[in-house]
Amino acid sequence: MSTPLRIAVVGAGGRLGRAACEAIAGSTDFELVGRFGAQDDWRAAVRQRKVEVALECTRAGLGTQHGLALLQAGANVVIATSGISIEDQARLDACARACERGGLIVPNFSLGAMLLLKACEEFAKSFAAAEIIEMHHDRKRDAPSGTALETARRMQAARAPGGAPVPIHSVRLPGLYAHQAVLFSAPGEVLSVRHDLLSAEAFAPGILAALRFAARARGIERGIEHAFAR
Question: Is 140 an active-site residue?
């Protein structure tokens, strides 16, 4: 029987962090050796506790800084915090390779969101006009969401160079959880794709798959699809 992977969660008190801790604790593949808030001295603890993979899910804008620190502390990483640009990914990748580490940047752990991204990449090749509407609860601070930004980036990359940016509309209202609709149009027709996330339990399969992938990764990849590639 293989030894469980030693996992820590940075941002364990947040909605995603709590869901991650529950999923990890319920799996025989992992041992949860650290639950940290952003203000804890998690850098030293990660090294002392010999953490193999750290999940970073704190606050938008902190993912790159925290990811670099985790790699330097000796852990592979899964970064779920919004705001990781392609340039940030290159910095993380260079650090990971220098440290002989690796990991995964995950804008969204949901399988449904993964399929929506794939569909939007394909549809963007045929529809020149498209807009994104992302809707979240009123406690979500960042806007647009990381998922919407990643959707727009991939759609833009799928099109011919020089195309117009994909507009994103953000809605923050009580009663919502996490929802995204993408509308594609051409003369005489509209194609819409929508994903509705109703609770954080939808993240569990993606979180566990991402941790398994990150444990064996060298360099930093982007997107939950890497964790499910066959």
Answer: yes
